[in-house]
Specification:
Layout: H1 31-40, E1 50-61, E2 64-75, E3 79-83, H2 90-97, E4 105-110, E5 113-114, H3 119-124, E6 126-129, H4 141-151, H5 157-169, H6 185-197, E7 203-207, H7 215-230, E8 234-238, H8 242-248, E9 251-256, E10 259-264, H9 266-273, H10 280-288, H11 290-305
Parallel strand pairs: 3-8, 3-9, 6-7, 7-8
Antiparallel strand pairs: 1-2, 1-4, 4-5, 9-10
């Protein structure tokens, strides 16, 4: 018997305060964002299980190993933060998940589909937002979204309406018929985000989502992520903005030198790092060895003040 379709969740402003333990969720920005996010959520049956599974994933470039035997699972319906210092293997991992790079060894499964054995099905479950918004500059914003929808076989009035609402949400409506080459960096980022949600993917994979966004757009995106997840989607997010990650993410993993060195909720990370009530920045520095650098900087600053 088919499982019942997940009930769409739309948070109402002025409603109950999140229960204890859910206080990290980003506060709502408006009904328009939340209703659109509910419509963008994947049309899948309710269910538990892992949306993303990596088993022994390794990526080598010649003699250099960028990612080493990575094992990771991401449950459905969560915002999962993926952190690490520069050069730790974050972007390489994200590009392998998105199908842009092939692993040297290991397996990646998206919603149960093996990325190597069933690449079309696996990739259709993903909306990918890379750290750099490279777009087709000789298309207008509206044409670009139509093009992307067509790639996923999602053309027609429904996709056109979804594209229109996304452009309206990110204040791009007046730029719909302008060439992408005239867009600012922030506008390109908003157009890229819109394109990732267009085909109603089950998993959003995003690298540095807030780069180039103004405060209003960043707040809208945070609310979009949360409501999308509440309605059955999953977000795999990498960012150096630890304050955003701590507030937004349900689970976190920290990667260092190509391997996961810590994994869990904020409370679990505090326990693993023996960090008391430390915030994410303190935990991150402690487990990656950056606390030694912070101590040196603090010492230098104290010496300068003397």
């Amino acid at each position: 018997m088919a499982k019942p379709e997940r009930e769409r969740v739309v948070t109402v402003e002025g409603g109950p305060t999140p229960a204890e333990g859910e206080g990290r969720r980003a506060p709502p920005t408006g009904g328009r964002t939340r209703h659109l996010a509910a419509d963008l959520a994947p049309p899948i049956a309710a269910g538990d299980g892992d949306m993303l599974v990596l088993e022994g994933v390794t990526k080598r470039y010649g003699r250099f190993t960028a990612v080493q035997g990575l094992d990771l699972s991401v449950p459905r319906g969560r915002i999962f933060g993926f952190l690490g210092p520069n050069g730790a293997g974050k972007t390489t991992t994200i590009r392998m998940i998105a199908g842009v790079l092939m692993p040297t060894a290991g397996r990646i499964r998206i919603g149960g589909d093996d990325l190597a054995d069933n690449p079309d099905n696996a990739k259709a479950r993903i909306g990918y937002i890379p750290d750099r918004p490279f777009l087709y500059e000789k298309l207008t914003g509206g044409e670009f979204l139509t093009f992307v929808a067509g790639l996923w076989g999602k053309g027609g009035e429904e996709s056109e309406e979804r594209a229109r609402r996304l452009m309206e949400l990110f204040n791009l409506s007046q730029w719909k018929n302008e060439l992408v080459e005239s867009y600012s960096h922030g506008m390109r980022q908003k157009l890229l985000i819109s394109s990732a949600f267009l085909h109603q993917p089950e998993l959003i994979v995003v690298d540095e989502p807030m780069v180039g966004l103004d405060p209003k757009a960043a707040r809208i995106l945070k609310d979009l992520f949360r409501t999308y997840v509440d309605n059955g989607g999953t977000v795999f997010l990498s960012s150096h903005t630890l304050e955003v990650v701590e507030v937004l993410c349900d689970d976190l993993a920290i990667i260092h030198e190509g391997a996961v060195i810590a994994r869990g909720t904020m409370d679990e990370l505090r326990t693993q790092a023996q960090a008391g009530e430390a915030d994410l920045e303190e935990i991150f520095l402690k487990v990656t060895g950056g606390d030694e650098v912070a101590e040196i900087v603090a010492t230098l600053q104290a010496g300068g003040e003397g």
